[in-house]
Amino acid sequence: MEFLIKNARLTGDNETLLKDILITNKKITAIGTDLSVSVEDVIDVKGKLVTPGLIDVHVHLREPGFEYKETIETGTAAAARGGFTTICAMPNVNPAPDSVEKMQNIKSLISKNAKVKVKQYAPITELLTSDRLTDQKALINAGAFAFTNDGVGVQTAATMYLAMKEAAQNNISIVAHTEDDSLLFDNGVMHEGKRNKELNLPGMSQLTESTQIARDVLLAEATGVHYHICHVSAKESVRIIRDAKKAGIKVTAEVTPHHLLLSEEDILSDNSLFKMNPPLRSRADQEALLEGLLDGTIDMIATDHAPHSDEEKQGSMIGSPFGIIGSETAFSLLYTNLVIPGKVTLDQLVKWLTLKPAEIFNMKTGRLEIGAPADLACFDLQNEKEISKEMLHSKSSNTPFIGWKVYGDTYFTIVDGQVVYQEEN
Questions:
Q1: Where is the Dihydroorotase catalytic domain (predicted)?
Q2: How far apart are CA 280 and CA 341, in angstroms?
Q3: Active-site positions?
């Protein structure tokens, strides 16, 4: 199959110069101005932005076990709707893929139902909550992308140390949701700051996150493992990661769109759509996260797409599950609220969502260049849209961004030369 994308705006040098992109047999085979080729199909994007397909190293697809929230089919459709062509699925499903058989089962479901490329994480420990390490070599051979107990922190330092030591030998990454349960008090539901006191809701200290990061970076230094930190939320965490990088420790980190764009001050009432873990923290934390992105302390943006049913997300934060969806709105929200006001450049945003995760996790995707896989996304930067439940392809709609007006909505998404999402006119 061969087709041509005409008049695309690319990031980087000469952003105002429109380019054509030729795709042949799942690869990008030419990029130039006014390419003169004979092809059956031509897509004229008329100056819209074309980027490498976005990469999200942190999503929850909920299948198997929680299909009422999301499935591999609907979760990957949501990713395609947001311009993501590669996503990495967390293992906190039921059963968790902590054995070869369970990993093979999930990989089979992905092969049958995924609309984009999916890399599957395996748990660090059996059942995600035990101190019994999984068989890393066997799970790697079965297709594990990396190892994480996302959703819970590894509570015992010795367990994390042994897991890191083995992962270093296996040349694979340890990816951590950092949360020290011993510092969780009163079943906290939001950041322990000024707003939780005003709303009379139990708080969650930043110490639950930052103290475990401090422990883990020293363990990573001792073992030589690549240690990646999920959804950084606190200024203290940013400081620890910055110091660890200066010390030469192989640590990388991600931040979510919601932690970049919101703080505890945006929570005006006891609204479970604002309940997430880690929680939205102070304005100072929010500012430190953006500063960390800009100076390279934080390496990439990942959504932590976490679907829940409408019934689960009604009413109070108390008793409702943590998490919001993010696959479909990440780029447009970040473009509208960070690029347009001049806080970051468009080129920076695209790299945080493509090249940086590709480089760190050794992926072949994330690049718009000749010979690269034809994984592309196209965004409309000119026309404003309102985020609504009706536009979502996810099975769930648990997001506080409903009603926000954005630029940069997805026009189309292409995976291996095949259109997997196209905006409806």
A1: 47-237
A2: 22
A3: 304
User: What are the counts of helices (DSSP H) followed by strands (DSSP E) for the chain?
Assistant: 12, 20
| 162 annotated ligand-binding residue | no
Residue 323, annotated as binding a ligand: yes
Is residue 299 within 8 Å of 358, Cβ to Cβ?
no
Q: What is the predicted pLDDT for the residue at 60?
A: 98
Q: Which CATH architecture has domain 53-360?
A: Alpha-Beta Barrel (3.20)
Q: What three-state secondary structure class fits 96?
A: coil
Distances (CA, A) of 405 to 171, 383, 387, 388, 408: 43, 10, 6, 9, 10
Residue 54, annotated ligand binder? no
Helix (H) or strand (E) holding 72: helix 72-81
Residues contacting residue 177 through CB under 8 Å, at least 6 positions apart: 148, 149, 150, 151, 152, 153, 230, 231
Question: 62 a known binding residue?
Answer: yes
- The pLDDT > 90 percentage for the chain reads 95
CATH architecture of residue range(s) 2-49+373-422: Roll (2.30)
pTM listed for this prediction: 0.97
Same CATH fold, 53-360 and 2-49+373-422? no
Q: Residue ranges per domain, the chain?
A: 2-49+373-422, 53-360
